[in-house]
Design a protein that fits this description.
This protein has 564 residues and is α/β, with parallel strands linked by helices. The chain has 9 helices and 29 strands. The longest helix has 17 residues.
Length: 564
C-alpha cells in the first residue's frame, strides 16, 4: 500500500456557499495551494506519506475565484500563465509554482498525482471555446472546441451522447465532451491525447486520478492511459458507486482490463456507516478492497463526500483512519481537510498528529494478507501477516477498533505472531502484552468516549521501530514553445526568459533540446556559470533561436529542487 494526501479541501463560507482552499486572491496573506504544499512536502515525506493528490491544475471558469475548484475546466492548457477568466493564476497558483511543487516533492521522496478532468468544459459561448495563444493577445490557443465536440443541448452541442458506462448517472455539468461521437471523428480524442502528454511532461507529475469515469467512453479512457507519457503512469478512476461488483466490472472488464484502479466508495460507505452509527460489523467483508485489494484506492472522506449531506463521516473519524491505514488496499487517501489544522485552513479538523502516527504504523507494519480476528456489534479486530514488506517480511500488525461510546472492552483473540511474543502498541495507548502459549493476544480497548474515534490499538512485535525510507530524486520537466501554447517560440538575439524553476544550490541544471535553440539558466540578465547556482532559489530559464527566425521547441530541463 502507498499513502497519499488529498492535498486540498472544500469548505463552506458564512453564506453557505461551497468554496475551495484559501488563496491570496480572496484571503489576503494566505499562500497559493501549490506553495503551501511545497512547504509541507518535507514533513509529509518524513512521517511516511508516499504521494500527494492535487486538484485539477488547469484554468477553470472564474479563474482564481473562491469557488473555482478546477472541475469547471475552461482552458486545459492554461496552468496559470494566461490572463483568462479574469486572472493569470488558477485558484491554486501559477504554472511556475506547480512545477516547483512537483520538483520539491520529488526532492523529498514524494510522487505527485494530477486530477484529470476530461468529461466537460465550462465558460465557452454556445459550446464554442477559443483561447489566448502565447503572445497573450491572439485567440489562437491550442485546443479550440466547437459544437461538434459536445453532447447535444439546446443552443449548444450537436452530438449524441457517447456509450458511457452508466448513462443514468451521467449528469449534466457544463458542456459535456464526446469522444466516440465527435464531429469530425476523433477530433476530441486526438486533442485529449496531445493535452495529456503535454500536461504530464511539462509538470513532471507521476500519476493521476481520472474524474467521473462513469460519464466517459471507456475505450477512450483506456487509449488515454496508454498514450505517450501516460503509458508509464498509475491511474485511478472516480467511479462513484457503492457496489463492489460495479467497481470490479468497470476496473477489470475490457477495455480497462485492470489498467486503472478505482476510488473505493464501498470502503467509504462502510466506514461512514461504522463511524456514524458506531457499529463494527459493516467493516467486515464490505469493501471493494476485500474483493480486489490491488485496484482499491481507499478513503474515509474526500472533497465530494465531506460536503454532501448523508455522505460525510461525522463522528469517530479516527476509527475510520485506523481502519483505512491498516487494511489491505492499493492506496490509502488521506483527506487534507481532515489532516491539516485550522491555522492552515480555517475549518480544517487538525487530525495530523494522530494520522501521522497511523501513517508510520502503515509504512512499518501494514503488509501482507488480512484476517479478521474478532467482530461483534462494537469491536472489530484485523491482522496483517507481514508478508511482502518493503525489505523482506514485516513484523505483522494487529489492529483493534472499539466503536462503543461507553464501555471498555477486554478481548482475547488469535494471532499469527506465535507463542510468548512481546507485542507493543504503537499508538502508545496500551502497555506491552505477551501472547500466550497458543499465540493468543489479550488486551483492553478504551471506550470511544464522546465519539472522538481514538479507541483503537495497533500491536506489533516490540522493538520493531525503524526509520521511514525515502529516495530523493531530480525532476525532469519539458517546456514547450509554440505560438498556440503558453510559451512563445524561441526568437533570435539575447536569451529570453520563458519560465522559472526552483533550484538547489551547487547542483547543475541540464538542458536537452534540438540544436536549433540555445538554453541556459539565468539570474536576472546574467547567465549562471555552468548552470550551477551558488544559492538556492528561483532562477529563470532563457532560450534563444540559433537562426534568424523564431523556432518552436521542446526543452527538457532536469534539476534538483531546492529545499523549502
Amino acid at each position: 500500500m502507498t499513502v497519499s494526501l488529498i492535498g486540498w479541501g472544500r469548505f463552506f463560507d458564512k453564506n453557505g456557499n461551497r468554496i475551495t482552499v484559501p488563496a491570496p486572491s480572496t484571503d489576503p496573506g494566505k499562500p497559493w495551494l501549490w506553495d503551501l504544499l511545497a512547504t509541507e512536502a518535507e514533513n509529509l515525506a518524513s512521517v511516511g506519506f508516499d504521494r500527494i493528490q492535487l486538484p485539477p491544475a488547469s484554468k477553470a471558469q472564474g479563474g482564481d475565484g473562491a469557488g473555482c475548484d478546477g472541475y469547471g475546466i475552461y482552458d486545459p492548457r492554461d496552468l496559470g500563465t494566461k490572463n483568462q477568466q479574469w486572472s493569470i493564476p488558477t485558484r491554486y497558483g501559477t504554472a511556475d509554482s506547480l512545477r516547483r511543487l512537483v520538483a520539491v516533492a520529488h526532492r523529498c521522496g514524494l510522487a505527485i498525482d494530477l486530477d484529470i478532468v476530461l468529461h466537460q468544459l465550462i465558460g465557452g459561448e454556445n459550446a464554442t471555446y477559443r483561447y489566448l495563444g502565447a503572445d497573450g493577445k491572439s485567440m489562437n490557443g491550442r485546443g479550440t472546441m466547437h459544437p461538434g465536440c459536445f453532447v447535444r443541448t439546446p443552443g449548444g452541442g450537436t452530438q449524441p451522447r457517447d456509450d458511457v458506462p452508466v448513462p443514468a448517472d451521467d449528469f449534466a455539468f457544463g458542456d459535456e465532451k464526446v469522444y466516440q461521437h465527435s464531429n469530425p471523428a476523433r477530433y476530441t480524442v486526438e486533442d485529449a491525447l496531445e493535452y495529456g502528454d503535454w500536461l504530464f511532461r511539462t509538470s513532471g507529475a507521476d500519476g493521476g486520478r481520472i474524474d467521473d469515469v462513469k460519464g466517459l467512453w471507456a475505450p477512450f479512457v483506456a487509449e488515454f492511459m496508454g498514450h505517450g507519457s501516460m503509458a508509464s503512469k498509475p491511474f485511478y478512476g472516480e467511479y462513484f458507486d457503492g457496489n463492489p461488483a460495479s467497481l470490479n466490472w468497470w476496473a477489470t472488464s475490457a477495455p480497462i482490463n485492470g489498467r486503472c484502479a478505482v476510488a473505493d466508495f464501498t470502503m467509504h460507505f462502510a466506514i461512514e456507516n461504522a463511524c456514524n452509527n458506531r457499529t463494527a460489523p459493516t467493516l467486515n467483508g464490505a469493501t471493494y478492497a476485500q474483493w480486489n485489494s490491488g485496484l482499491s484506492y481507499g478513503f474515509v472522506d474526500n472533497p465530494d463526500t465531506d460536503t454532501s449531506p448523508g455522505e460525510q463521516v461525522i463522528g469517530s473519524k479516527m476509527l475510520g483512519y485506523a481502519y483505512l491505514l491498516t487494511v489491505n488496499c492499493k492506496q490509502a487517501l488521506v483527506y487534507g481537510k481532515d489532516y491539516f489544522p485550522g491555522s492552515v485552513w480555517p475549518g480544517a479538523r487538525g487530525l495530523k498528529p494522530l494520522i501521522d502516527n497511523l501513517v508510520y504504523i502503515n509504512r512499518t507494519f501494514a503488509y501482507g494478507g488480512q484476517t479478521t480476528r474478532w467482530v461483534d456489534g462494537s469491536v472489530f479486530v484485523i491482522e496483517r501477516d507481514g508478508n511482502g514488506g518493503p525489505v523482506g517480511n514485516s513484523p505483522g500488525l494487529l489492529t483493534a477498533l472499539n466503536f462503543d461510546t461507553y464501555n471498555i472492552r477486554r478481548i482475547t483473540c488469535a494471532t499469527s505472531f506465535g507463542s510468548n511474543v512481546q507485542l507493543h502498541d504503537y499508538t502508545g495507548r496500551h502497555p506491552d502484552i505477551w501472547t500466550d502459549w497458543q499465540g493468543n493476544a489479550t488486551f483492553t480497548l478504551p471506550a470511544n468516549a464522546y465519539g472522538s474515534g481514538q479507541s483503537y490499538l495497533c500491536f506489533s512485535r516490540a522493538f520493531s521501530d525503524k526509520p521511514i525510507a525515502r529516495t530523493s530524486q531530480r525532476t525532469t520537466q519539458v517546456l514547450f514553445g509554440a505560438p498556440d501554447l503558453d510559451i512563445p517560440p524561441a526568437s533570435p538575439g539575447p536569451l529570453k526568459s520563458i519560465a522559472l524553476i526552483w533550484v538547489e544550490k551547487n547542483t547543475t541544471v541540464t538542458f536537452a533540446a534540438n540544436n536549433k535553440i540555445e538554453a541556459a539558466l539565468l539570474e536576472g540578465a546574467m547567465q549562471v556559470p555552468g548552470n550551477k547556482p551558488a544559492k538556492t532559489g528561483w532562477y529563470e530559464i532563457g532560450v534563444s533561436s540559433r537562426s534568424a527566425s523564431t523556432v518552436a521547441f521542446e526543452l527538457s530541463v532536469t534539476y534538483a529542487a531546492g529545499q523549502m
